[in-house]
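Dear Dr. H.,

I hope your travels went smoothly. While you were away I took the liberty of generating a structure for the chain from your last submission, since the lab meeting agenda had it listed for discussion. I wanted you to have the full record in hand beforehand rather than looking at slides cold. The sequence, exactly as received, is reproduced here:
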Amino acid sequence: MGQAEVSSLISHVPFVVLKHFGAYGQENSRRVVNQVISEKTLYDSYLRPFAIAQQGGAAAMASGRQHDLLMMCSYGDINGTQSCTSNTLNTALANFNFKGLVRSDLDVRSGVGPLYTSGVSLIKPQGALSMSAMNALSAKTKQAIHDAAVMVVTEMFRTSLVTPTGVRDRNIGATLSTSMHDQGINVANDIERRAAVLLKNNGVFPLVKSGSTLLLTMQDLDDTCRALATSMNRLGYSATCRVLNPPLSGGVKPFGKITSANGKVRKEASVVWVAPRTGYYFFQQQTTGNSELKVNGVRTIVVNGNAEFPFANFTSFRATAGESLSLHLSWLQKAPNFTITSMDNTLITALDAMKSATRVIVMANDVGREGADRSTLELPYGFDALIKVAAATKPTSVALFTTGPVTMPWIGSVNGVFEFWNGPGDATADNSIARLTPAIADLISGVTTPTGHLPITFPVATATSPSGFNNQAFWPGIKNEVNLKSPPNGGLGLGFNWYQSASWPVLFPFGFGLTYPTTDSTFPTSSVSCAAATATSLCLRVQPRVTMSSTVKDFTTISQLYVAPPASSGQPKLLLGTVTATQCRTTTGSSTTNSNTCISGSTNATVTALQSGTWNSTNRQYQFAPGCYSFILADHARDAFDILATPRQGNHPSAIVHATAPFSASTDITAGACPA
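The corresponding predicted structure, in token form, is as follows:
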């Protein structure tokens, strides 16, 4: 996925930045956390995506644009050394033959000298370096700064980042050339069309144009909501936007005035709160970290580590008039700002807005942003209550704008769910997301057929996810150090493999994504190989089969090929080996062309050691471990696990094949799973 995105981006924009290079896994305490990690875990779990994504820029770099691909080193330390100055990561860049520029993030706790002499070309300091401090630098450091400056400034002029005329972009505070500004918006919309994921569809999408559509949201998506209504109306809809504003600063403070702790001894406060009336409420706990709320003895909001700013955490609930809740709050540093807010006025306003609407789309967002981790996967501001009330009143669908997974207690009562990503984490994001509404309107209306698939698992509940309060092993660095050498953080327990092994309930598995045509992918019954195998690659023929109605315009089908490596390799039980995209229908005006590949032909899927092998520290490359590999065509990860467990049932025999490494030109690809 990263490789395809880089390949598309780098042909349209001047620079592509891959970040954050290292073992970057959290936001709280991100600047100081020390990640103790083995070479195998680092390469197999954390650096592999960068090595793959880099391949997307190979053609551009070979043509002389080697500085157009940048790598941003991460916060935190690798085995006691700051990531941007880590010899381990510098060696990894050399192993990957990376020739682009390396830049730091903001204030990575390393001096100018160590950064530039470690090969960083562009730094982002918290404050400017004084001239006297600059003069005191060694000759070696000054030369490194000079060399880096020449490279960076040369690229800025070459790519028209320095331009006498252009378009002022208030989101980034810079003037861009007109072509760069327009290209950036066009590319962003194209990515949105490909990346958005249709999660549920009870026949509501594509959305009909009869009647009226109410877009209902809260303050974070103000610009986006209004822009989407405009984009939909241009397509022939009657859409209006209503932005609700819950009183985030006007809630009840049940603990009264509390004072900060000293960072060493926790302070505590207890109180009994009585609901004044029946209805929906939400807790808001704004904190800089290390604070915990218990409700009737149950841990409800837990924030470990340090956020870089006061970050609001929300949990909504319903209470009956006179109901008592025992609240206990503890904190280690700055006193949290804790309030309880009634949703009554917000929901009354929403109900009034819904009266004249034929249908409702609730545009919901999370509050994930840089510098702080979410304490829960629940939607903020009482969105869950709003969606429940809307679904009980009008036919309702949900458009999600989130930074990652969220829980959906209302999933059974809504008609459809789209995940559009791009959570509005800060004040400038809303205006940026608003620029994507042409693509979003195309997806809602069916002008564009959704083809996106989830790159992450959506769990049923926070408690049965890595974010759960009782799953602290998944949230590293609480004490500013994390051991990534042992499970679950060591590799075998990461991602969809852990959900499977722990039997945690999953709402939407990794790789899930709906579309409008009926799709399927199988291996041919003979001649599965499409090219001679090598020690580092295996080519398999895949038969995509698609049934489309006449209303579907352009359509590309996605085939996911999963790999089950031998247990002796020390790898996870299942990996995503590769993804193929096959253009099945091309629409030009009134002319429609269907591809025979999606009717009776086949396409090639190449699985490489870079994608599915393991790091060999002696050869300094990824390689397939000796043993039998199963290759599985599946709709998503859960489907792949089912096929692997029961390869002889139903249509499974045509969806799984196996071969034994070391691979070579004489390797046979055989139907079915690896022998037990």
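Two observations you may find useful: The domain at 183-246+344-452 is CATH 3.40.50.1700 (Rossmann fold). The chain has four domains: 2-158, 183-246+344-452, 267-342, 517-671.

With kind regards,
E. W.
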